[in-house]
Structures are given as C-alpha cells and as structure tokens.
Amino acid sequence: MQKRNLLHHELLEITILRLCQQLIENHGDFENSVILGLQPRGSHLARIVQQKLKGLTNIDVPLGYLDTTFHRDDFRRRDTPITANQTDIPFLLEDKKVILIDDVLFTGRSVRAAMDAMIAFGRPLTVELLVLVNRRYSRDLPIEPKYTGRNVNTIKSQKVLVEWKDQGANENSVWLIDN
C-alpha cells in the first residue's frame, strides 16, 4: 500500500479558507443560505466551514447534518446492514439556498441520495455542492461540485482519505492511497 499526501495541514487550511471566500463571494450576507453536512464524513468539514465563515463574516450560517443511508441505491444490496447516522436539520429547507458539503466526491451516488433525502425537509431554492476533493474520472452520475478544494485524477482501486487532528489523526491532511 502506497500513501501520497495530497494536502498537508497548511495547504488544507489555505484550501478551506479559499472555499469559504468563494462562498462569501456568492452568498454575500448568507441571508437565505444554510449548510448541510453529509453524514458521516462531510459533517466535520461542514462544521469547520461554518466556524470559518463566522470568523470571517461574523454571520452564524445555520448548520445541519444529513444522513442518506436509507436513500442510497445500494442500501438493500449489501451483505451486512448499514448503520445509519443521525440526521439533524433544525430548520426547514423550503426556499433556502443549500450548501451541501462532503469531504470527497467519488461516484456521485451519495450526493444523489442526499438530494432525495433533502426533500423531506422542504424544497430548496438552490443546492450547491462543496467538496474538499473531487475524484475525477470516476463518476457514475452526472454530478459536479460548484466549489472544489482539489481535483484529483484517480482510478477505482485508489482511495482518498481525509484525516482530522481532532478526530485522532496526527495532523489535518488528505491522502491518496494505492491498494
């Protein structure tokens, strides 16, 4: 197994700050905007983005967490049951500008499931996708992010691993792993 560092902690910090600046440019005062983190891995990035936006703009953008387990197209195809994560959306999505956040975009199936799951909370005005890593050349569905931290050319046998210091890693970093 080979591991290659795609974003070390300093570059990761700069990348997240750039993504926040792009959100500020497009959302201004965030008046009708909300952030939804995809459970489980996108929720941590969503918290970081919300905190950085608050530090930059002094605006507390509403934050929720969305689990897509029961909306996935492979839910009944697995040998072992999937453990669901908690959905926590303390607001309606009706007529909101939703910023959907995940750490890695691979096939697009999780995002498709998220779009299905969101409908239970209202019909959003718009949905924008923000991802830390966009794995190109691996999409099963025609889904592309509006905000991308890093585009990476990968093959199916590779894996992208995002590690966070406050979740037990030595430092914040993003790795490309060859099996």
Automatic annotation (TrEMBL):
It is an enzyme of class 2 (transferase). Residues 5-165 form the Phosphoribosyltransferase domain. It holds the Pfam family Pribosyltran. InterPro entries: PRTase-like (IPR029057), PRTase_dom (IPR000836), PyrR_bifunctional (IPR050137). Its EC number is 2.4.2.9. Transmembrane segments: none annotated. It comes from the Bacteria. Keywords: Glycosyltransferase, Transferase. GO terms for molecular function: uracil phosphoribosyltransferase activity. PANTHER family: BIFUNCTIONAL PROTEIN PYRR. This is Bifunctional pyr operon transcriptional regulator/uracil phosphoribosyltransferase PyrR. It comes from Mangrovivirga halotolerans. The gene is pyrR.
